[in-house]
Amino acid sequence: MTKRMVLALLFTMTLASHAYAGTFVETPFFADRVSAGTLPPVQERIPEAPAIADFSAPGMKPGRHGGDLRVLMGKSKDTKRMVVYGYARLVGYERDFNLAPDILDSFDIKEG
């Protein structure tokens, strides 16, 4: 992938994220905390340019809030595997295996 393609992709993604002017729905799980004032409303908790999931892609569909994470661990030291469930990526891959920012807003590729 050329540097020009990466820059064009990042520019497009940045414009798309800023163009979204939708409203955000409060998670029912946090509703009690928000009404008690111990947690700010959702509009104050999200970043200026949030990542918006594209559910029009094949195999993508919205999930639901809440749930339980059930894991089988034989020993107390197996908790080190929990990092897999809490893993946050700075950069990820798109469906065509090109690098794309995940948590990062953008990144530069320097070859050499």
The total count of helices amounts to 3
Major β-sheet strand ordering: 1-2
Estimated share of beta-strand residues: 5-15%
In whole angstroms, the N-to-C terminal distance is: 14 Å
Give me the Rg, rounded: 18 Å
Describe the protein in words.
This protein is mainly alpha-helical. It has one domain (3-101). 24% of the residues lie in helices and 5% in strands. The chain is built from three helices and two strands, in the order αααββ. It has helices spanning 3-19, 31-36, 42-45, and strands at 91-93, 99-101. It has a two-stranded antiparallel ribbon. Strand 1 (91-93) and strand 2 form a beta hairpin. The longest helix has 17 residues, at 3-19. The chain starts with a helix and ends in an 11-residue tail after the last strand. The mean pLDDT is 78.
What layout of secondary structure does this protein have?
Layout: H1 3-19, H2 31-36, H3 42-45, E1 91-93, E2 99-101
What's this model, at a glance?
The chain is mainly alpha-helical and 112 residues long.
